[in-house]
Amino acid sequence: MQIEKNLPQFNEEKALLIVTGERSAKLYSANQGFIEELALFHIVNPVYSDREGSFGKSMGQTRIVSGAAYEMKQNLKLDLHTKFLHKLKQDIDDVQKKNKFNVIFLFSPDFIAKDIYKNMTREVSDLIRLKVKGNFVEEHPFKLLQRIKKEYESLLGSKTPINEEAVKLLKPKKEIK
User: Fold this and answer.
1) Of the residues 3, 10, 137, 151, which has the maximum number of CB atoms within 10 A of its CB?
2) What gap in Å lies between CA 87 and CA 17, rounded to an integer?
């Protein structure tokens, strides 16, 4: 889709926007005034029916129960996290090989951003120009571009040209004596 005129157009460079949540991600390409979604995926948390695959053993008055429904949730979370990072790395590498991006913007929650960065290849991680903390997976691409514009303006100072009417209103009037 065509990018609105008041947002960064990426005429000089090919940009990859990596937008992640805890277990979902979207990859966008922005170039020559257009932005398009390249990839989308979500790692689903498995749901087990009641006591599926479990077995128990009695020892005196106590009963020890184990199985899929009783697995440590921490191990499951770690496994899903690892799968997510692997899939994300694979998708980023595939997209980078096809498109040869020269700048990357990473939108990711703080708790997972470090892992994503560590998991990337050196070639890809060197292209990251801006990291924005937060979960923006459900946001419209234009909101992401507004966020990039806002971050750049705060870092570099506003470079937005002011129209002549605004300049006239902002200048103090000279007093006539």
Assistant:
1) 10
2) 16
